[in-house]
Design brief:
heterotrimer, A alpha+beta, B mainly alpha, C mainly alpha, A: alpha+beta, Rossmann fold, OB fold (Dihydrolipoamide Acetyltransferase, E2P), six-stranded mixed sheet, five-stranded antiparallel sheet, 10 helices, elongated, B: mainly alpha, MetI-like fold, 11 helices
């Protein structure tokens, strides 16, 4: 994960989507949106199935045409160009290796189409296979490959074509966890080595956050938020983004007072007094408050009354997941998810009276 | 172990026995055929008295039989060629470019298979009669084309449905224009399916009797030759011809196996 | 800054429509044309002409009069000659196809669910038996069923009978045996095809829930392969009751079916309108049977 969005924008725009939308007969897959991907950036399109991320990717690839708007690659308008004439290549979600060709013939498919000459094509094939760590696989038949190997060959095939932008449609979703982790690391490595622009579609937020320079969170055909993984995680801008990133403590609240640069929130069951966010909010307004599970401190309830940013509750559920302990704590009838580092700390069983505390500046407030 | 469990355990053994018996039943007539084709006696009764190749010699010496074989092969070849061409076009269209009314078209194409050969045969006989067309191998071929078309279409459609359209998208993404895509990806993957379906046509045509019976002219196909010989008298050489047909069928099926078993699944 | 907004900030560009509609449709029609022509000329037209002929009257020697009448149908339905053979066809067709289904279903189950690598070999063997020659197979059965055939000789050797059973050949039973035999390969292939889509796990699931051996299979497999079952029954009935060769070779006097007089009318320059009328009546019965079966399937599928 390299840097914030700022440096990236100094570089030329690799992909520019301008007012792009996609309507089908029965529904709108993508509402008009703009997006720019900078050269050498690793951008992830993240969202649940049906959010339009794959449609958007296919529009960039040229396999589907947009209902409105333009698609530009490195400054050239490619909206009317068919997919085979665009300098982009797609790694599909399913294995789409040609079953009647060997691995080497698959990888060399693009170069041979461009009539690069026997030797040059062979060199490209070799280089690509080495990049994906399958140097000896050239003569293998496609049907003999495992899932992970097949996707690597698909990657090599796309790269051997020297695309200016590499598109990946959830290439790892069908693979086992082990292999997935391994390939994630290898993909990052390849990205770093080649300096190639990557646009990566996934529904796995961990995957997106760990690999991408910038994450584009999508929902229902619209872009919910764009930012670096850190930005998005620390400052989700909508309840959807918060929930999708696994923050389950998303509650509605009402502003009771907004003075001295502080907001008092009511209705959550917790005494929330938070620094006022940049957007102007007045008393009576409904907002959404989010407290990430890892922002809570959990200790055994003491006898002295709770202080400012503290509250007492009861443990409703405990789950030990190795390095973390996940609690569900009931406070005033509402259940809050709390993540605590396991380490050698005490693990509170169900029914324990506990004290939750938090830092007011870590409470996220968004418009309701 | 209570009797129910024992029965249940045996239930699976019963299946094996049943299948074995049924397969014996299926192949019994063919075995009898082969056995009698080597019998030296001119009578078709058990037990066999001696072995001889006389019936095979007689078969090959007999020009009616050899003419019949040639006629059958010719009709099968022409039928195969015509059905493959028009059937492939239709199957490709219906299965790859969904359009309204596709299922109706499919239904119409499969309609001839819903009728017994008898009806198709007399319809064609009547038709040719009204048109004053002399019956010949050509009229036989027409009958075979109508008869085998639905089966070709059925088998090919089943295979085409398994074809992943994303493979063509991948080819396009890698830079292939429409023609290149067809030559390098679509055609090589569809070809085995077409060949397998064509072999089905050849086999069906080779064996066809009930329609051919009505559309035959001077030249007989092999099944018709067998029929006339069997009708005239008890003719053991029929067994020899039958055995040859079984052998031919075996060869064709083994040959097709290379294409029927999914080489690319 | 490159940050996307879901709010519209610029005027919308007009939607680009790819002009695919018209050209594609023309292409589709063009590709379907040869087949359409072939079927129209070789199938639809002859059937229509045949149908028309059924309303004409025979003048002997294959000649027919021009004007249209129902007389052929009346004769077909009222004459006792055809009643017996028609009933035979229904009887043998019905029993034969049900028998075929019952016999081939366990075989299909076995091939689909109990074999792995041997599947291909067995299917191949079945296909060989299928393509080994229609006439040849019927003829082979005469050898088995005949007075000095395999069965009689074997039974006599064992000592079960004193003189040969003549009921085996040239009887209704003989026709039933032969037509069932001829139908089993196709029925098996149809059923195996239908069973391919049934998940092995479903049967195990049923077993796990307490259904005993056979029940587990039938309660799951039968409803799920019902299309195959209906197809097997429909196809079997049509083929069996329309068979006009088997009765002639092994049917004797009692085993004749409707196909025989129909073929007679056309081959021996008989009464073609009558033959045609009989054929269409037969087709009408087939249509009824087919609709009956599809109704049954919908009932079973619930």
């Amino acid at each position: 994960m390299t840097g914030t969005g700022a440096e990236a924008t100094q570089r030329p725009a690799a992909v520019t989507l301008d007012s792009v939308s996609k309507r089908f007969a029965t529904q709108t897959a993508v509402h008009p949106l703009d997006l720019t991907v900078s050269e050498s950036e690793f951008v992830a399109l993240l969202g649940p199935s049906g959010c339009g991320k794959t449609t958007l990717l296919r529009i960039i690839a040229g396999l589907d045409s947009p209902s409105s708007g333009t698609v530009s690659i490195f400054g050239t308008d490619m909206t009317d160009r068919p997919a085979n004439k665009r300098p982009v290549n797609l790694v599909f979600q399913r294995v789409t290796l040609f079953p009647h060709l060997t691995v080497a013939e698959n990888v060399g498919f693009g170069p041979r189409l461009r009539r690069l000459g026997q030797q040059q094509a062979a060199d490209k094939v070799r280089a690509a296979l080495e990049l994906v760590r399958l140097p000896e696989f050239g003569d293998r038949r496609v049907t003999q490959l495992s899932g992970g190997q097949a996707q690597r060959v698909a990657l090599a095939r796309a790269i051997a074509n020297d695309p200016k932008v590499l598109l990946l449609d959830e290439p790892l979703s069908a693979l086992d966890l082990e292999i997935r982790r391994q390939l994630q690391a290898e993909l990052k490595d390849i990205h770093r080595r080649l300096g190639l622009t990557f646009v990566y579609v996934t529904h796995d937020q961990e995957e997106a956050m760990s690999m991408a320079d910038r994450v584009v969170v999508m929902n229902d055909g619209r872009i919910e938020q764009v930012g670096s993984p850190v930005q998005i995680y620390r400052q989700p801008r909508s309840p959807f983004v918060a929930r999708f990133l696994g923050m389950s403590n998303v509650v509605e609240a009402t502003v009771t007072s907004a003075a001295d640069g502080h907001l008092d929130l009511d209705g959550t069951g917790l005494p929330l007094r938070v620094p006022a966010p940049p957007q102007a909010l007045a008393a009576g307004q409904r907002v959404i408050a989010v407290i990430r599970p890892d922002c809570f401190e959990i200790t055994r309830a003491a006898d002295d009354p709770p202080s400012a940013a503290e509250v007492t509750g009861t443990v409703a559920d405990v789950r030990f997941i190795g390095s973390l302990v996940q609690y569900l704590v009931t406070v005033a009838g509402r259940k809050w998810q709390v993540s605590a580092r396991a380490g050698s700390a005490e693990i509170f069983p169900e029914g324990t009276s506990v004290c939750l505390s938090w830092r007011p500046d870590e409470v996220i407030v968004m418009n309701g | 172990m209570n009797p129910l469990t024992r029965l249940r355990r045996r239930g699976f053994g019963l299946l094996h026995i049943y299948v074995g018996l049924l397969l014996v039943f299926l192949f019994l007539p063919l075995v009898v055929l082969i056995v009698f084709s080597f019998s030296s006696s001119g009578q078709l009764r058990f037990p066999i008295t001696g072995l001889s190749l006389r019936w095979y010699r007689e078969v090959f010496a007999n020009s009616t039989v050899t003419d019949g074989i040639v006629a059958s092969l010719t009709v099968a070849a022409v039928t195969g060629a015509v059905v493959t061409v028009i059937g492939t076009m239709a199957a490709m269209v219906v299965n790859r470019y969904p359009f309204r009314g596709a299922s109706v078209v499919s239904g119409v194409i499969l309609a001839p298979a819903a009728l017994p050969g008898l009806v198709i045969g007399i319809a064609l006989l009547n038709f040719f009669g009204d048109l004053h067309v002399t019956l010949s191998l050509l009229t036989v071929t027409v009958g075979h084309i109508i008869y085998t078309l639905p089966y070709f279409y059925l088998v090919l459609s089943a295979r085409l449905r398994k074809f992943d359209p994303m493979l063509e998208e991948a080819a396009t993404d890698l830079g292939a224009g429409p023609v290149q895509r067809f030559r390098k990806v679509t055609a090589p993957l569809i070809a085995p399916a077409i060949i397998a379906s064509a072999f089905v046509v050849l086999a069906l045509s080779w064996d066809e009797f009930q329609i051919t019976f009505f559309t035959i002219g001077d030249q007989s196909t092999l099944p018709l030759v067998i029929w006339s010989r069997a009708r005239l008298s008890i003719d053991p050489s029929v067994n020899a011809i039958g055995t040859l047909m079984v052998a031919g069928s075996l060869l064709v099926v083994i040959f097709t196996r290379r294409f029927i078993t999914e080489s690319y699944s | 800054m490159g940050i996307g907004q879901s709010v519209l900030t610029k005027p919308r560009r007009p939607a680009r429509r790819r002009m695919r509609g018209a050209g594609a449709r023309r292409g589709i029609l063009l590709l379907l044309l040869p087949l359409g022509v072939a079927l129209s000329l070789g199938f639809v037209l002859p059937l229509v002409l045949l149908f028309v002929k059924s309303f004409q009257t025979s003048l002997g020697y294959g000649q027919v009069s021009g004007h249209l009448t129902f007389s052929a149908y009346v004769t077909a339905v009222t004459s006792p000659l055809y009643r017996t053979v028609a009933l035979n066809a229904l009887e043998i067709g019905g029993i034969g196809t049900v028998l075929t289904l019952l016999l081939s279903f366990p075989l299909a189950y076995f091939i689909r669910f109990r074999l792995r690598r041997a599947q291909h070999t067995i299917l191949l063997l079945i296909m060989i038996s299928l393509f080994a020659g229609y006439i040849v197979k019927i003829y082979a059965w005469t050898t088995i069923l005949g007075t000095y055939g395999l069965i009689n000789t074997a039974l006599a050797q064992i000592g079960l009978i004193d003189h040969p059973l003549s009921v085996l050949l040239f009887s209704k039973i003989a026709v039933l045996i032969v037509v069932t035999y001829l139908s089993i390969p196709v029925s098996t292939l149809i059923l195996v095809g239908a069973m391919q889509n049934v998940d092995r796990g479903l049967i195990e699931n049923a077993r796990d829930l307490g259904a005993g051996g056979i029940r587990a299979v039938t309660s799951v497999l039968v409803p799920l392969s019902s299309t195959g079952i209906v197809a097997s029954l429909a196809y079997g009935f049509v083929v069996i009751s329309g068979d006009y060769i088997t009765p002639q070779l092994v049917g004797g006097t009692t085993g004749q079916m409707i196909g025989v007089p129909i073929s007679d009318q056309f081959l021996n320059i008989g009464d073609q309108p009558l033959g045609s009328a009989l054929s269409f009546l037969m087709l009408a019965v087939f249509a009824l049977v087919y609709f009956g079966l599809t109704r049954l399937e919908r009932f079973k599928g619930v």
